[in-house]
Amino acid sequence: MIFGYARVSSFDQNLDSQIEQLREAKVDRIVQEKISGIQNQKEELNQMLNQLIKDDTLIVTRMDRLGRNTKQLLELIEELDKRGINLVILNLGIDTRTPSGKFILTVMSAFSELDRTMIKEKQQAGIAIAKRKGTYKGKKQKFTLKHPGVKHAIELHETTDKPVKEICKITNISEATFYRRWREYQKIKITLRTSEQ
């Protein structure tokens, strides 16, 4: 199935031009959204991405319709590639259904990977310097076991049959965070049980 995604940043802007281009591209279904590219939660886009299956195609008129942050865009492109979903960006002439489109995507991903590696190297060098100076405090955890969202998620997991995905949606924490804190919580419970015996 071929999906088209059209987005503008505010309610007074018009989607007509994007919709026309997507119709010309022979999409089966158009998903529309009026939300800023800076916003992380694009509800309509996220719902559509969850529906996409292997060999589906996502068409956008411009790359920035998927978001304004280059890092986020490249992560999304890589995720689609891993899931076997094709991506077409009309104004750039990128079509991953073709060998040249796949090549462009590979080059973009390679640059993204290089950028990540360089950032990581800089971070590690900075940490090493801070450790030598005795000023390194480590990364402060935001989502500890005391965090209200984490506490609520653990409570829901223990008292209901809701799947983890739904619990994370309700409590607004990521699944990775939930599983990390859940393992930590289980270890504490085992330690407490052992000390009581």
Q: In brief, what are we looking at here?
A:
With about 200 residues, the protein is of the alpha/beta class.
Question: If you had to describe this structure to a student in words, what would you say it looks like?
Answer:
It is built from seven helices and five strands. Strand 3, helix 3 and strand 4 (86-89) form a beta-alpha-beta unit. By secondary structure, the protein is an alpha/beta fold. It is 55% helix and 12% strand.
Global mean pLDDT: 84
Query: How would a textbook summarize the main sheet?
Result: 5 strands, mixed
Radius of gyration, CA atoms, in whole angstroms: 22 Å
Oligomer: single chain
Give me the secondary-structure topology.
Layout: E1 2-8, H1 16-24, E2 29-34, H2 43-51, E3 57-60, H3 70-82, E4 86-89, E5 94-95, H4 99-133, H5 148-159, H6 164-171, H7 175-196
Helix pairs in contact: 3-4, 5-6
Attribute tags:
12% strand; 5 strands; alpha/beta; five-stranded mixed sheet; 197 residues
